[in-house]
Amino acid sequence: MLHTDREREREMESKIEAATGKLVVKKVGGKSTVTRCFSKYPLKFIIPNKVGSSETDAVWVYTLTYGGGIVSGDSISCEITVADACTAVLTTQASTKVYKSLGSKSSEQILEKQIFRVVLDSSLVIVDWITSGRHESGEKWDFELYRSTNHIFLEGDQPLFLDSVLLEQGSITNIAERMQDYQVIAMVILLG
């Protein structure tokens, strides 16, 4: 099903109450500009006025979490829209730490959605990675579930790249045993 920009915008507006972060980048005066920015605890967006050369048309967005990472009970959900002919960089100041859950309070971070819709002359760089944890604290792949999905579609919703990574504790072996000596999973996509 194809959606117009306005339909997508309305759809996103209806979800804003559930999201802890929403960001929209559009062309304003010929430059990529943040036209909508919303975040609430435990998430914060930092959008510096100047990053790099003044000739570069790119919006830089840093995501921050209070408490130095994702702590027990945190739930973070972001929706980010980058309009046609715009450039945006979404990053963090450092790797996101996920701290141990206390009792039944689980933590989660959801980037809604890691679906990229591009036109033929678009450029896209995606770096999606996870480390095994804090070795000094004895943590090595010590979590219940990790899921990362990245989909890239061309115009007309034609699939170009569909990728999913799922790590979950099993009843026979745990994640650490299956990962053996591997400490990082990374996926890098360069398109354009």
TrEMBL record:
InterPro entries xrefs: UreD
GO-annotated molecular function: nickel cation binding
Pfam families reported in the protein's UniProt record: UreD
Record keywords, A-Z: Chaperone
Record-stated family: Belongs to the UreD family.
Protein name: Urease accessory protein D
